[in-house]
């Protein structure tokens, strides 16, 4: 059996060490350090208020900032203890087959307005998590979790669930940039700060799923400059009731943050006893294909089109087909009015006979079917997953939806500005992906090469993203040959190799392929890369990264490596250092490149493919056009021709 098949069997999670370690007092301050000693979180009471600060070596990351759990309360530290813990665990799916959780934990006993509370802080080598744990004495009181971040000089980057982004200079900050930040952070999504020395820090939360009553944290800038407050609230349920973790990620590059596992390690372990039915994979998506005419077949929202797509998926090993809006007309009171053009039973039966799983869309705006019956209805149709649209940013509703869909073995893909629930793919891995970003082809104002790169390095900190990259017919889409193409023609800036690389660069449990089957078959060499590319990985890293400008991601499955690089609108060449390859081994590298005359606006579909041999330590040059990209498939020569 796959060691990841049963969640509680996942735990290579043997505790390698769990030993008490003293928290070092400095006067009235209490300090807890990371296992390697590089990162330190300090807690102290000033004027009866609780403050914390974070430093890496001599470099202060967060200046003394206020923490609060009961509004306006006085605070006293009455005791503390610390321990160090190491364990390894295996996610059901993800960017890594094994994740190490090595941290030091401080438990700080507090008196908050004569109410006992516990603050828990975990410090990793690459991040910090802070949460409060309620006591029975706090029952029915309003918990208002406020954590301030007093940032040092640098630039803050923000990319929201709808693709909006802004740069903000922390010191000095103009009124205009502060106002921009205020509009941006109102959605409560990750904030990434880049210091003048290149230190990258990310601010988000984790394990909201376990924090009943809490909604997604909101961020509020201090308009005098230099600080942001994160806040959320709930009514205390008494003993053991937890807040979400407030998370600080630390790295030397944006790529370090993208590959950071602190938020996952802070999330609650898997609650599902059996996860064998959870299968990541690739999905063809009907929504962007509507109106495509190959000369003899015109795709629409009808049975004929769905059967045609299923046949393509079955022939070429695409595990899923996503059937989006308008397959049903209305819903309500446990009844679904299906479109007269769609024989849904025939479609589902044909998919089952051909080994293709179906993801079915649902939109509550068409009427409330009733969530107590909805998931059973979808499971009864033999759907493998529900793509839930327009459910809104509602954490309580999101928790119920995740739980209810898991009961009937349905995967979930949340769309249209959902609650991200950072880390929940560890706790409830049926949440396979979400659109906490802006999907491909939507709103060119929000989706440019630069905004793609912001979302790939900021929005992605929340977890798997469904961004639906991978269009091969860029010219046709730009010319308006699709019903659901960009509203403004010739506004879609990308190259076909960039599209290939984007499917790899942005991690998702379901990789949504938005183009017509015929367009993939017109470029069989590029399509081969997509077909061979797995959806879950043994190892991932990001050797090149700069927010809004470029990103290189390398992922390993077995002994094969897939590498993708994506560029903004400035042509450039990036060195891809192959230090990650196994020593003393020769690899065949299939290289997919923008051609000499490729241009993201003027000539987006020109590309070349070449083959070479490489070894550890070699450097391949990723030469990318305006809006361009680069991809590499690396396989050991002694395994050539074998499936990995």
Automatic annotation (TrEMBL):
<dbReference type="InterPro" id="IPR029483">
    <property type="entry name" value="GH97_C"/>
</dbReference>
<dbReference type="InterPro" id="IPR052720">
    <property type="entry name" value="Glycosyl_hydrolase_97"/>
</dbReference>
<feature type="domain" description="Glycosyl-hydrolase 97 catalytic">
    <location>
        <begin position="294"/>
        <end position="435"/>
    </location>
</feature>
<feature type="domain" description="Glycosyl-hydrolase 97 C-terminal oligomerisation">
    <location>
        <begin position="536"/>
        <end position="634"/>
    </location>
</feature>
<dbReference type="Pfam" id="PF14509">
    <property type="entry name" value="GH97_C"/>
</dbReference>
<dbReference type="Pfam" id="PF10566">
    <property type="entry name" value="Glyco_hydro_97"/>
</dbReference>
<feature type="signal peptide">
    <location>
        <begin position="1"/>
        <end position="23"/>
    </location>
</feature>
<keyword id="KW-0326">Glycosidase</keyword>
<dbReference type="GO" id="GO:0030246">
    <property type="term" value="F:carbohydrate binding"/>
</dbReference>
<feature type="domain" description="Glycosyl-hydrolase 97 N-terminal">
    <location>
        <begin position="32"/>
        <end position="269"/>
    </location>
</feature>
<dbReference type="InterPro" id="IPR017853">
    <property type="entry name" value="GH"/>
</dbReference>
<dbReference type="InterPro" id="IPR014718">
    <property type="entry name" value="GH-type_carb-bd"/>
</dbReference>
<keyword id="KW-0378">Hydrolase</keyword>
<dbReference type="GO" id="GO:0004557">
    <property type="term" value="F:alpha-galactosidase activity"/>
</dbReference>
<protein>
    <submittedName>
        <fullName>Retaining alpha-galactosidase</fullName>
        <ecNumber>3.2.1.22</ecNumber>
    </submittedName>
</protein>
<keyword id="KW-0732">Signal</keyword>
<dbReference type="InterPro" id="IPR019563">
    <property type="entry name" value="GH97_catalytic"/>
</dbReference>
<dbReference type="Pfam" id="PF14508">
    <property type="entry name" value="GH97_N"/>
</dbReference>
<dbReference type="InterPro" id="IPR029486">
    <property type="entry name" value="GH97_N"/>
</dbReference>
<dbReference type="InterPro" id="IPR013785">
    <property type="entry name" value="Aldolase_TIM"/>
</dbReference>
């Amino acid at each position: 059996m796959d060691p990841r098949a049963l969640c509680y069997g996942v735990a290579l999670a043997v505790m390698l060490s769990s030993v008490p370690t003293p928290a070092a007092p400095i006067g009235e301050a209490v300090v807890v350090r990371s296992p390697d000693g590089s990162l330190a979180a300090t807690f102290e009471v000033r004027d009866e208020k609780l403050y914390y600060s974070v430093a890496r070596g001599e470099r202060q990351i967060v200046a003394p900032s206020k923490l609060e759990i009961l509004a306006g309360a006085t605070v006293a530290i009455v005791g503390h203890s610390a321990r160090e813990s190491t364990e390894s665990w295996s996610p059901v799916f993800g960017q890594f087959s094994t994740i190490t959780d090595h941290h030091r934990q401080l438990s700080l006993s507090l008196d908050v307005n004569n109410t006992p509370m516990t603050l828990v802080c975990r410090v990793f080598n690459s991040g910090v998590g802070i949460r409060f744990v309620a006591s029975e004495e706090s029952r029915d009181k309003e918990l208002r979790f406020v954590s301030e971040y007093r940032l040092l000089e640098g630039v803050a980057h923000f990319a929201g669930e709808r693709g909006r982004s802004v740069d903000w200079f922390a010191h000095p900050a103009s009124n205009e940039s502060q106002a921009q930040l205020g509009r941006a952070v109102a959605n409560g999504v990750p904030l990434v700060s880049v210091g003048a020395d290149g230190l990258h820090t990310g601010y988000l939360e984790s394990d909201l799923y376990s924090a009943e009553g809490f909604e997604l944290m909101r961020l509020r800038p201090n308009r005098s400059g230099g600080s942001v407050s994160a806040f959320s609230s709930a009514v205390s349920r008494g003993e053991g009731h937890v807040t979400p973790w407030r998370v600080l990620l630390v790295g030397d590059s944006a790529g370090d943050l993208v590959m950071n596992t602190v938020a996952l390690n802070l999330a609650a372990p898997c609650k599902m006893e059996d996860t064998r039915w959870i299968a990541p994979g690739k999905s063809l998506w009907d929504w962007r294909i509507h109106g495509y005419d190959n000369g003899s077949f015109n795709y629409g929202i009808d049975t004929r089109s769905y059967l045609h797509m299923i046949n393509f998926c079955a022939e070429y090993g695409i595990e899923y087909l996503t059937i989006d809006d308008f397959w049903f007309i209305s819903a309500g009171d446990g009844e679904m009015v299906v479109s007269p053009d769609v024989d849904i039973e025939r479609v589902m039966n044909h998919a089952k006979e051909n080994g293709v799983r179906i993801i079915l869309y649902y939109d509550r705006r068409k009427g409330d079917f009733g969530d107590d019956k909805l998931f059973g209805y979808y499971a009864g149709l033999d759907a493998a997953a529900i793509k839930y649209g327009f459910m809104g940013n509602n954490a309580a509703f999101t928790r119920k939806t995740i739980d209810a869909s898991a009961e009937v073995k349905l995967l979930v893909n949340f769309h249209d500005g959902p609650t991200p629930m950072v880390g929940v793919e560890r706790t409830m891995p049926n949440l396979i992906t979400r659109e906490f970003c802006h999907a491909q082809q939507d709103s060119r104002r929000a989706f440019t090469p630069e905004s793609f790169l912001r979302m790939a390095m900021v929005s992605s900190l929340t977890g798997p993203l469904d961004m639906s990259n991978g269009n091969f017919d860029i010219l046709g889409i730009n010319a308006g040959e699709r019903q659901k193409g960009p509203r403004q023609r010739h506004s879609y800036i990308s190259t076909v190799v960039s599209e290939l690389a984007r499917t790899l660069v942005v991690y998702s449990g379901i990789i949504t392929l938005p183009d017509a089957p015929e367009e993939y078959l017109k470029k069989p060499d590029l399509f081969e890369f997509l077909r061979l590319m797995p959806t879950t990985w043994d190892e991932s890293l990001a050797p090149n990264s700069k927010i809004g400008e470029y990103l290189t991601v390398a992922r390993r499955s077995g002994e094969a490596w897939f590498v993708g690089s994506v560029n903004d609108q400035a042509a450039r060449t990036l060195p891809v250092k192959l230090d990650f390859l196994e020593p003393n081994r020769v690899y065949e590298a299939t290289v997919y490149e923008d051609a000499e005359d490729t241009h993201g606006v003027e000539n987006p579909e020109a590309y070349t493919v070449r083959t070479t041999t490489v070894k550890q330590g070699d450097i391949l040059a990723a030469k990318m056009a305006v809006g361009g990209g680069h991809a590499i498939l690396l396989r050991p020569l002694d395994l050539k021709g074998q499936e990995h």
